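Sequence of PPP family 3-phenylpropionic acid transporter (Pseudoteredinibacter isoporae).
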Amino acid sequence: MLDGQNSAGESAGASNRIPYWRLSIFYFFYFAVLGALVPFWSLYLQSIDYSAQEIGYVMAALAISRIVAPNIWGWLADKTGQRLRIIRWGSCLAVLCFLGVFWQKSFAAMFAVVIAYSFFWNAVLAQFEVVTLDHLNEEPEQYSRIRLWGSVGFIVAVVLLGALFDAFSIALLPLALLVLLLAIWVSSLTVSEAETSHHVAHGDQSAGESRFTDILKRREVWVFFVASFFLQISHGAHYTFFSVLLEEQGYSSMVIGGLWALGVLAEIILFMYMPALLRLFGARLLFWAALFSAAVRWLLTPLLVDFFIALFLLQWLHALTFGAAHAVSIEWVRRFFPSSSHGQGQALYTALSFGAGGALGAILCGYLWEISAFWCFAFCAIAAFLGFVLSFWGMRKAKLD
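Predicted 3D structure, token representation.
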């Protein structure tokens, strides 16, 4: 694995256009924040006596802002061409808003703080994806090798924080998140605009918006967005209650973090070989495999939670359910939308999938969890399978590979 990473660094370093490590470090810290939030935030909320429904709503707040924020920032970035300025201001304001976590005293206050800081935090990733692809220019296959450092950041965060919380207390989570959010802002200051990035002239704006609407009317495009929406609904139980489920079965924070890290390790391996997998199987088959694997994964998780070896094996499916789905989605958005509307395309993907899908999944799972863990995860399996059926119907004849 290290050899693959070194070769990626050398090949990227061979081109002065690609600031490989500066881009990679940003992804490292951005996804380290997710490595702190996703496995441990629900456990932290449970530790301060939040109910399952309240946990569901607060977790949904992280996704709700993704419905609106990426589209606002995407439109603004495409109109002004000031992507890095938006990324830097978004990172800085996310830090300032997150400070409210240390003073909130109620569920309503926590919900408001999470909405506020995530509104700016969610301004960042979709636009940084565009900055990265601008730097890669005619070498988009390098994307997976840069993005894998985000997965490394996630693993480092879950392993170190899992050990920290076992040794001390999960009450340290807000402080850890504040440090990581600061690191995102600092790393954004080290990245420069790509030579290929451009400002969209005002005269071209209305034409670009017209083309954007026309693209969305193509069947394979809207089917892709709806299938991505279902895929992220299906992650609701995993992102919101997987750690709670494990803790209720007696697993320690260290083991919980280790299982999360294992899934992301599988994701890293997939990212390293993604160019070869795309050539071998094609993007469409990998997308179908991601949706079908998600249905299997969510159905089996509550049934096999008592068997560590089964959980160990199921976590490897994360390579498909997130890694393959995300890499294919980023590539398809790049192909579907021209540079004049690329930021809006990335923002719409984020808003509909991680935003609307993630929020709806978290809220519904908050209610289903109080019925039973099985029905919570079974609902998610059904959502993933619906996405698979829809994408198979809508994409099987389209020219996507």
